[in-house]
């Protein structure tokens, strides 16, 4: 017998911590090796010794649990590589796997069957079975192993069910206070069990998630989430101090660094991804089998998420370090700690979004029950959505680091989906919508205007306001939304807020332009009309390079004119056009050639914004620009192409007939080759 195997087996079976001198990689590598090379007759005993080892599971249990699962997975690949496949048709398992390989898998399953007597045996058994399934997935392209995989998968479901039953029995009730105490333990049996189940939950079908187990898991995960992020880690930011040169640094052995190190050793924190995904599955599963319990969990979850996010934001905003935008002002040794801190905040945001999205999925397709447990009135779907949006608002200082919610190039799709889905639900309740806007607007102003947290709060408020304008009453628009947006229409230094403010204005005008020509003028329509002169001036002020992009400028001016042109009175629309023509005339100097080109392209955008009455003067103004002798050939070429695209793709038949006749006539008069290159249908 291999002396190395004998030594390892003896070490595993000793009661004292005999493996403490060996590196984890050495232990797990040895397990993978001997699993793949031992004779089949010895495998069950080795697997039993590994699962029941008193020394292996004495300390660093989670590291060993993950290591053993990885070792089993590796052993599957090693065994497959080293085993000749012998087809045996009609054998118990898949014919083309080969008898030796099938016997090897059966031997491991036989050894794993010990996992029925204690929590340790059960959660280690789940890790072993999960490793087998992962290993089989790695070689799925080479082997047809449907029946074998199903056998192992069924065993995993069975072991997981027994494990959850035991946890439920030990805790007596999922609401008991001692459960929370046990779950907070770094390596308690409940913690390890739920985390390894979450890691392998992908192999457990929804139909096998029992109602009581789903409730147990969701509640446990919520408790763990609260324990991890509600521990006040950010209070350590108060340790930062600055020197005479304005450089911020931490003291020797700072509490913040110690707290973050402890957090990174937390089993729950390290398993946040799979735990959040399992929480989502449990909430959705409960909504199908017991809507009342599902709604109780939804209300409990929102009661945790919003206050917790408010606490994290308050701790961050109260620290001096939160006002720093230049990381060079951080001492080099302290930057590593801040990188770890932001990794923690990112993990918090991702797990919060995943858990919140499952709630939105439920409240989108299910109405709340009439009564919840205890006869309490359940929160309505808009109220739940409002609470989730408030949570996102508190976390906006984190998401702003990834480009913000509304930025096309930033953010992440799950967060954007959550944001817009929640707003869609909220739009069904104008009262709840207005209440949220007041709360969000009330959170702004208690920090200096230049503070990054203030920027993120402002951008989030404007992003919400933009989506809620269609249902906002004129009082809310006039007293809350528009006064706030006006403050940021020229503040380029706050780019996200600047662009959000312009988006709000466009939303107001879009709402106006969507009204039919014969519709009676209501308060919102009159408000939009009153805004025209003010916003017109703001757009022209931001027409230069470095302000609004050319796409933003053209879209904004188009919306402004289209909104004005939608009314029966063309005076307001012509006022906007005339102001643009004046600006074009004032920027003909060579020093303002770039701005002139941007304004000329904006003028072209108005072809599809005006009615038939105003189309001819707009075309005449464009003709003047194209025939201007000082216009460069490249600029003339670009503007001509834009004219062509507007006429051929963005206007109705009545306008197209007029515009096309004008364009064909103008092409003959243009004294450059571009006219010959454009094909006009």
Commentary on this structure:
The protein is mainly alpha-helical and 681 residues long. Among the domains are: 1-204; 532-681, Serine Threonine Protein Phosphatase 5, Tetratricopeptide repeat (Alpha Horseshoe). It is built from 30 helices and two strands. It has helices at 3-13, 24-37, 43-52, 61-82, 99-112, 119-138, 146-171, 177-183, 189-199, 211-229, 255-265, 267-270, 272-289, 291-317, 332-365, 381-394, 396-399, 413-426, 430-442, 452-468, 474-486, 495-513, 523-541, 550-565, 571-586, 593-605, 612-626, 633-649, 653-669, 674-677; strands at residues 241-242, 248-249. A two-stranded antiparallel ribbon has the order 1-2. A hairpin with a 5-residue loop joins strand 1 and strand 2. The termini are far apart.
Kindly state the percentage of residues in helix: 55-70%
Given the C-alpha coordinates, what overall shape results? Answer: elongated
Return Rg in Å.
33 Å
Determine the structural class based on helices, strands and strand pairing.
mainly alpha
Contiguous uncertain segments of 5+ residues: 85-97, 173-186, 516-520, 672-681
- Report mean pLDDT, rounded to a whole number: 85
Could you tell me how far the N terminus lies from the C terminus, measured between alpha carbons in angstroms? 87 Å
Beta strands, count: 2
β content, as a range? under 5%
Give, in spatial order, the strands making up the sheet with the most strands. 1-2
Determine the oligomeric state from the structure: single chain
How is the biggest beta sheet arranged?
A: 2 strands, antiparallel
| Count of helical regions | 30
């Amino acid at each position: 017998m291999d002396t190395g195997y004998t030594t390892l087996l003896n070490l595993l079976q000793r009661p004292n911590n005999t493996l403490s001198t060996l590196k984890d990689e050495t232990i797990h590598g040895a397990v993978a090796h001997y699993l793949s090379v031992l004779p089949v007759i010895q495998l069950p005993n080795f697997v039993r010794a590994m699962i029941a080892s008193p020394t292996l599971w004495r300390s660093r249990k989670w590291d060993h649990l993950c290591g053993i699962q990885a070792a089993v997975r590796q052993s599957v690949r090693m065994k497959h590589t080293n085993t000749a496949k012998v087809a045996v048709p009609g054998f118990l398992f898949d014919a083309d796997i080969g008898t030796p390989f099938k016997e090897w898998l059966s031997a491991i399953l036989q050894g794993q069957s010990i996992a029925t007597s204690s929590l340790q045996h059960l959660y280690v058994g789940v890790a072993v079975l999960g490793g087998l399934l992962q290993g089989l997935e790695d070689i799925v392209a080479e082997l047809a192993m449907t029946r074998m995989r199903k056998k192992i998968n069924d065993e995993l479901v069975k072991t997981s069910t027994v494990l959850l039953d035991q946890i439920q029995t030990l805790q007596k009730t999922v609401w008991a206070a001692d459960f929370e105490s046990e779950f907070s333990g770094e390596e308690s049996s409940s913690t390890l069990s739920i985390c390894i189940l979450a890691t392998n939950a992908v192999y457990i079908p929804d139909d096998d998630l029992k109602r009581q187990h789903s409730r147990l898991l969701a509640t446990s995960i919520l408790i763990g989430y609260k324990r991890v992020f509600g521990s006040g880690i950010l209070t350590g930011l108060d340790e930062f101090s600055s020197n005479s040169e304005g450089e911020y640094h931490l003291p020797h052995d700072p509490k913040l660094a110690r707290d973050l190190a402890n957090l990174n050793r937390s089993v729950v924190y390290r398993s946040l991804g799979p735990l959040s995904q399992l929480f989502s599955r449990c909430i959705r599963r409960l909504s199908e089998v017991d809507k009342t319990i599902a709604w109780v969990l939804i209300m409990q979850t929102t009661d945790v998420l919003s206050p917790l996010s408010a606490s994290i934001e308050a701790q961050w905003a109260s620290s001096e370090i939160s006002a720093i935008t230049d990381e060079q002002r951080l001492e080099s040794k302290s930057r590593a700690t801040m990188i770890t801190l932001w990794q923690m905040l990112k993990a918090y945001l991702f797990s919060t979004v995943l858990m919140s999205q499952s709630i939105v999925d439920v409240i989108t397709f299910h109405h709340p029950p009439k009564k919840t447990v205890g006869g309490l009135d359940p929160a309505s779907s808009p109220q739940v959505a409002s609470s989730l949006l408030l949570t996102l608002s508190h976390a906006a200082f984190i998401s702003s680091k990834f480009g913000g919610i509304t930025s096309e190039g930033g953010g992440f799709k799950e967060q954007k989906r959550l944001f817009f889905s929640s707003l869609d639900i909220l739009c069904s309740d104008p009262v709840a919508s207005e209440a949220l806007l007041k709360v969000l607007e009330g959170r702004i102003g208690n920090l200096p205007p230049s503070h990054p947290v203030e920027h993120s709060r402002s951008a989030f408020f404007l992003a919400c306001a933009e989506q809620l304008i269609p249902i906002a009453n004129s009082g809310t628009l006039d007293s809350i939304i528009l006064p706030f947006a006006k403050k940021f229409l020229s503040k380029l230094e706050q780019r996200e807020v600047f662009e959000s403010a312009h988006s709000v204005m466009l939303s107001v005008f879009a709402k106006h332009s969507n009204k039919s020509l014969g519709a009676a003028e209501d308060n919102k329509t009159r408000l939009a009309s009153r805004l025209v002169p003010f916003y017109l001036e703001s757009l022209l002020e931001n027409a230069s390079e470095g302000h609004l992009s050319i796409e933003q400028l053209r879209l904004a001016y188009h919306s402004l004119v289209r909104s004005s042109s939608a009314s029966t009175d063309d005076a307001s629309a012509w006022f906007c056009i005339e102001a643009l023509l004046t600006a074009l005339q004032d920027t003909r100097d060579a020093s303002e050639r770039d701005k002139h080109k941007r304004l000329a392209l904006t003028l072209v955008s108005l072809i599809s914004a005006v009615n038939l009455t105003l189309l001819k003067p707009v075309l005449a103004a464009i003709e003047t620009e194209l025939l201007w002798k000082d216009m460069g050939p490249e600029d003339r070429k670009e503007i001509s192409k834009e004219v062509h695209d507007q006429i051929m793709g963005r206007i109705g038949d009545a306008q197209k007939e007029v515009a096309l006749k004008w364009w064909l006539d103008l092409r003959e008069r243009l004294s450059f080759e571009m006219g010959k290159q454009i094909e006009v249908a």
